[in-house]
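Annex B. Sample input.
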Amino acid sequence: MSFFRCITVVSTFVAVIGIWLASHYFGWLPINWRGDNGAAEVHLEYLQSWDSRTGHFESLRQKKFIHPVKESEYQEIVGKLQFIWPRKGERAGYILHFLHLRDVVPDELRPKDGLTFDEMLLIFLDSTACEKNYGREQSMFELTRYGLRYTMPNRPSVTAQGHDDQVISMLAEQRLPLDTELHVESKLARNKFTINNLMTDLLARFSTRHEFEWSLLCIAQYDPKLNSWSNRFGEKYTFEEAVHELIKKDLARSSCCGMHVCTTVAALMQLNEKYDIFSQETRELMDAYLISVLLAVDETMAGAGIVNPLWHTSSSFAQWAPSNQKSLKSSAPSSLIDQMLVTSHFIEFCSTLPDSVKYDSQKLTPMYQFLNSSIRQLHPNQGRQYICPFSHSLKVVLSARDKEGKEN
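Annex B, continued. Sample output.
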């Protein structure tokens, strides 16, 4: 072997090692998938007791609003589920939204080739189930020097989540505690992790300079007593500091017309009732923020029961961020899909409000009527194409379904 060829080989080796070390240092290292040919059997046994497991976790209280749905309307609504139900190979973001329906839609309604809710959830808990659904080359799990993470939104992959830490937020919604096991198989070994390993990586990545509303809520639900934390760059955060940044966010640039930001603020205030997380001054500020949201929505309604996607441009909300102040008149009319998106999210926001903030539930009645009618009006293909507004609308309408027509 010539001298120059030796130099080339050595340089290539050093470059590969350098890239590996750099990716490790910056916290990203993809899992090496096993190389054997036989796919292990997917087992669901440990999911059977998912709702009775113990561990650090604080669930959110959801106020129950009752709105009757006629039997004929109900049958028309659930009939659309046959077309939108996730099948094998469905992208992760789609399945995440459908899991939102787990407590209001029974498995019996699924088509023959549809995944059960347990199978959907298992995709996010077991690499073998993930491999079975997406193939060997589509890894959802990434080992990092800080723990474990799911495919981030900026990756062009069917396994990518739609928002930072959206999967962990879904696990919290499913009431899975920190000690819930995650089975991740690599070429070297089958490693057992827990949600705690996801949280250590989340804390290492945490920053208020990007979309962090899901991340902050996950921290509060899984460790509401946490006084402070530092990310991998040594930046220190507290719940107080983070929520002050949250209420200054530009909602015009935030997901789902800013409603996730508002719901996170409401959820944090709800957790504060038990854990006394915030100072009196910050609690009053958060209450004022939530009241401003309600006033702004009332002032900018786009029609009977239709929340305006540009609600945050109301003068009632102008004090919170200058970037939220835009002219309603200069904006194009919103689409039915956008109206369903923000109206359904607003009802979910109302169901999360703390006791310190009151809202007349009678104002929600025309909103339920609008969503009920819109769901039945949409073609199933539109439901698949716009799974976020469709699934959230289904959630609030089916959650409120009751023959007595009263509020609990």
